[in-house]
């Protein structure tokens, strides 16, 4: 059974930093694209960052220069380092895994709240 377990969310003041972690109980982790999405209240879920199986990194424009994504295949873990946080970064952040071909998997989400 595939499980993605996020941690590291919380309440932080604007300008602060957080690091999210996602541990994946998944076979062939290194063959999966791993990423982070977020969903703010009343908004659609949006891609934040993606680290593909071939080590291609994509960062969404709203967070470019502030967020970085990394992965440790030996630990089946993907990270999202968030710096210079803004109130508009407040959202539930979801870990994402997909192998091509194959199913996509989601974590349960972790809340990030940035106070002004």
- Specify Rg, calculated over alpha carbons: 13 Å
The topology string of helices and strands comes to: EEEEEEEEEEE
Q: Percent helix among the residues?
A: under 10%
Shape: globular
| Number of helical regions | 0
What share of the residues does DSSP label as strand, in percent? Answer: over 45%
Mean pLDDT: 97
* Poorly predicted runs: none
Through-space gap between termini: 40 Å
Number of strands: 11
Main beta sheet, described?
7 strands, mixed
Structural class: mainly beta
Features:
53% strand, 116 residues, seven-stranded mixed beta sheet, mainly beta
In words, what does this structure look like?
The mean pLDDT is 97. This protein has 116 residues and is mostly beta strands. Helices cover 0% and strands 53% of the residues. The strands form two sheets. Strands 2, 4, 5, 6, 9, 10 and 11 form a seven-stranded mixed β-sheet that branches. The N and C termini lie far apart (40 Å).
């Amino acid at each position: 059974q595939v499980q993605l377990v996020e941690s590291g969310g919380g309440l932080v003041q604007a300008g602060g930093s957080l690091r999210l972690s996602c541990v994946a109980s998944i076979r062939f982790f290194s063959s999966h694209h791993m990423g982070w999405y977020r969903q703010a209240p009343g908004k659609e879920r949006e891609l934040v960052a993606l680290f593909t199986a071939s080590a291609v990194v994509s960062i969404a424009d709203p967070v470019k220069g502030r967020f970085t994504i990394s992965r440790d295949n030996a630990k089946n873990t993907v990270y999202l380092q968030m710096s210079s946080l803004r109130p508009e970064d407040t959202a539930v952040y979801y870990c994402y895994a997909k192998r091509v071909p194959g199913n996509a998997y989601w974590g349960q989400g972790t809340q990030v709240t940035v106070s002004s």
